[in-house]
Amino acid sequence: MKIVLIGYMGSGKTTVGKMLANELKSRFLDLDEEIENRLETSIPTFFETKGELFFRKKEHQILNELLSGDSDFILSTGGGTPCYSGNMDSMLHLADAVIYLKVSIPGLVERLIPEKEHRPLIKNIANDELPEFIGKHLFERNNFYLKANHIVDCDRKEPQRIVQEIIGLLG
């Protein structure tokens, strides 16, 4: 079974993905790590040297290669992945399930403030400006996120509970 986790940064895609893979005895893949391994450079460096457009083309190519392969896995994607290059359509067509880990704006702010230093996109945004920044992004991305096969509300839930909800949805 190929399961793809989508959602905004800080929504728990990696944490939940690893736990879900463990529960389902499946392999966990992180799309950003796969891209970095194949390109042999970090994503921020790739953005600086080649630009976002070229990155999005590579992201699309690697996503489709993974989804078209024979192996089963749980895949966590970048927050923007569903919004570019027809990626959401590819995921819906080639994966067994696309699951949106939905977190409210206040929930995301609470999760992201302690991680700001490790998040280049929000590193230089003042804490009081974070809700507006996230809200704008979510507004732009929601049309893509909401196409997922399943939407799991993750506010105030422990990762293990979210994993159990996903397993229940997969029936």
Please count the helical segments: 8
Shape: globular
- Give the radius of gyration: 15 Å
Series of H and E elements? EHEHHHEHEHHEH
Residue fraction in strands: 5-15%
State the low-pLDDT regions, or none.
none
- Work out the oligomeric state of the chains in this entry: single chain
**What is the CA-CA span between the terminal residues?**
12 Å
Beta strands, count = 5
> Helical amount among residues, as a percent range?
40-55%
The biggest beta sheet reads: 5 strands, parallel
What is the average per-residue confidence, as pLDDT, rounded to a whole number? 95
What report would you give on this structure?
This protein is of the alpha/beta class. The chain is 52% helix and 13% strand. It contains 8 helices and 5 strands; from the N terminus they run βαβαααβαβααβα. It has a 5-stranded parallel β-sheet with strand order 2-3-1-4-5. α1 (13-23) packs across α8 (159-170), α3 (43-50) packs across α4 (52-68) and α4 (52-68) runs parallel beside α5 (87-94). The radius of gyration is 15 Å and the shape is globular. It starts with a strand and ends with a helix.
